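Subject: mismatched residue count in predicted assembly?

I count 414 residues in my input, but I want to confirm that the predicted structure covers every chain. Input:
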Amino acid sequence: MATLSGKNIVKKYGKDTVLKNVNIDIETGKIYGLIGRNGAGKTTLLSILTAQNPATEGEITLDGQPVWENEASLSRICYSREISPVTMFGPNTLKVKDYLKLGKTFYKNWDQEYADELIKMFNLDVKKRVHKLSKGMLSAVTIILALASKAEITILDEPVAGLDVIAREQFYKLVIEEYASTGRTFIISTHIIEEAASLFEKVIMIDDGQIVIEENTDDLLARAYRVSGEDVQVDEAVSGLKVYHPESVGRNKAVTVLADSPVDNFSDSVQVEPISLQNLFYAMCVDGRKEA
Amino acid sequence: MQGNLGEDKSIYIQISEMIEDEILRDILREEEQVPSTTELSKFYKINPATAAKGINLLVDKDILYKKRGIGMFVREGAKKSIQETRKKGFYDNYVKAIISEAKLIGISKEELKKMIDSNLDM
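Triage response: the counts match. Full output below for your records.
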């Protein structure tokens, strides 16, 4: 098993500190989900992990070898970013097939047959120029590049953002199929948490430049609850536990609890329900920052 | 196979319970092969590790067994053993809930008994 790890990563853009001393270990052979609000630092973290962006402080290694300007390490990692239809010099007039050719030159395990299959599946016109593509087709290109790279560690930054529900489901099935047959590592960032949560063996939650959760998804949800009932009784039932996002209506109160370990002895006077990853994320991040 | 997973329990537990339900309903028969973890993970859109965890739970309970190189199979006597286990949970999972709801809405002991009695010709 290989490990892609980042130690004490700090990233500053001018006065802004976007990543505040982040430590992360990505073990191969798993599907990771990366979730966080807009501006939390997800894309910055991913681009630093894949040496597309230098860290202000800290070190990234793959199996102990620094990743920066290390071709051998980088050829094992694919970071398929969102493609921009405009570049610094105007519209992105590159043809899709030429963009995909870059994958062929860069990734040593590139699978052209698989790429062709995916192009057909997503109905992608490879003769089109990038700036003429719809949002959905832009997403399809990044997905095809990522999957056909056959890279040991494959990172997709918001791959489903532009896709309709049918294409999204297609994408999830493709990832499961690929993962089941090859054991490749996937790191997928997404805002559509509800849909993808069950795909993630491990979840990384990032908030305001810091990793607040890095845990097996089942284990995390097994210690998360929504506790509701009469305010006094709720307060008593959750005292001493980590509580997020209390909400009240009349005398009724509901809180989200993230205990250190699963709790099986909540008082009978309150209602205790399991909570989805999306709702846990919401509760943990909604009160954090004042803006937005 | 049911198509939807809920949020009320860990997914791997739901997977194991759905396979048990299928055995109880004779959709999966004893000595028959159960879907592979890949098939289950694609069908339910879940991580293959989660599907495997659900299957392994049933192996630990002696409901399923592994045939090397082929896959997982339903053990003989599995249906009976699931029924026995579920009977133990029946009071906690169902009867208690009925009684507590009945109390809450003011159904008397006699009324409740009558309702159950009149529906007992199963």
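Chain A touches chain B through 22 residues (CB under 8 Å). Marking this ticket as 'not a bug'.
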